[in-house]
Amino acid sequence: MHQKLFFSLLLGILINFSAVGQRQKIDTAFLDIEGVQVDRSQEFLTYEVRSLDKKKRVVGLVKKYAKNGRLLETFTYKRGIKEGLYQRFHRNGDLMINGEYKNGNQVGFWAFYDQNKCITKLVEYNDAGKLLQTRDNIFSQNNEKDSINGVKIVFETKPEFPGGMDNWNAHLRRHLKFPTAAKRYGGGEVVLSFVVLADGRIVLPKAISSTHPSLTKEGIRVINLSPRWIPAKLDGKPVDGTMNLRIVFRSS
C-alpha cells in the first residue's frame, strides 16, 4: 500500500514537472542594430535569453547581452507584456538605469546612475506611462564630482526626518519588525540609500549593504512608511538629494 502510494506521488510529481516544461521553453532571440530579430547565421548586435509560453509569448525574466556576452539589460514580461523591474548596466556591471514597467508602460521614478554609482537624473511617469517631469540635479555629498562651477557642493542642511533623530527612532520603535528569517543570527543591519525630493517625498530606496535579504525588505518597508522628510537645502532653497541611512536590528 505504502509502495503504491509512493509511486503514485512520484508519478504525479514527474507529470507536473513535465507539464511545466511544456508550458514554457527557453528561447534565444538574435537582434540586429535596429532591434529586429534575425537568424543566428546573420549579422546580429545583441541577443536575448528568454522564456516563451505555449502561445509563444515572452514570460518571466529576460536577459539581454551584447554580442561579446556582456550583460546589457534585464527586464520581465507577463503574457508578452513588459511588467516589473527594468535594469540597464554599465560596462563594468554597475547599475546604469533602474525603473519599472506596468502593463507595458514606464511608471514611477526611473533613476539614471553614473559610473560613480550616483544618481544623475530622475524621470517620473504616471501609471499610464505619461512623462510627468525630469529632474536633472540630484545632489549627493557622497559624490566627490558633484560640484557647481567647480566648487564642491556642501548642503546647508542635509535631508532630515521631521523632528530629527528622536522622532526617527520613535518611528522605528513603532513600525520596525525583526523578520523571523533573520532572528537566528541574533541581529543584523541594513544600510539604505534613497532620494529625498525637494518636496520631501522618499523615492527609490535600495540597500547598499545588508546582512540578510529579509532585513533589506523590512528596512525599505519602514522607510516607505515615513512621512515626508525635510529636504536638503542649497543656497537657501530645497533640493533633491540622496541620503544613506543605517538601520540596526537587535533581537529582544
Secondary structure: elements and pairs:
Blueprint lengths: L1 H22 L1 E7 L5 E2 L7 E7 L5 E9 L4 E8 L2 E9 L5 E8 L2 E9 L5 E7 L5 E5 L11 E2 L2 E2 L11 H12 L4 H4 L3 E10 L5 E9 L2 H13 L6 E3 L2 E3 L1 E10 L2
Antiparallel strand pairs: 1-2, 1-3, 3-4, 4-5, 5-6, 6-7, 7-8, 8-9, 9-10, 11-12, 13-14, 13-17, 15-16
Description:
- Residues 4-22 and 147-151 have low confidence and may be disordered.
- It contains 4 helices and 17 strands.
- It is an alpha+beta fold and 252 residues long.
- Helix content is 20%, strand content 44%.
- The strands form 4 sheets. It has a 10-stranded antiparallel β-sheet.
- 15% of the residues are buried.
- GO terms for molecular function: energy transducer activity.
- InterPro entries: TonB-dependent_transducer (IPR051045), TonB_C (IPR037682).
- It comes from Roseivirga misakiensis.
CATH class of the largest domain: Alpha Beta
CATH architecture of the largest domain: Alpha-Beta Complex
Specify the number of helices.
Answer: 4
Classification by helices and strands: alpha+beta
Query: Into which percent range does the helicity of residues fall?
Result: 10-25%
Count of DSSP E strands?
17
**Average pLDDT, to the nearest integer?**
84
Strand order of the largest sheet: 2-1-3-4-5-6-7-8-9-10
C-alpha-based Rg, rounded: 23 Å
Beta-strand percentage range = 35-45%
> What is the terminal separation in angstroms?
49 Å
**Low-confidence region ranges:** 4-22, 147-151
- Any idea what the shape is? globular
Number of domains: 2
The major sheet is characterized as: 10 strands, antiparallel
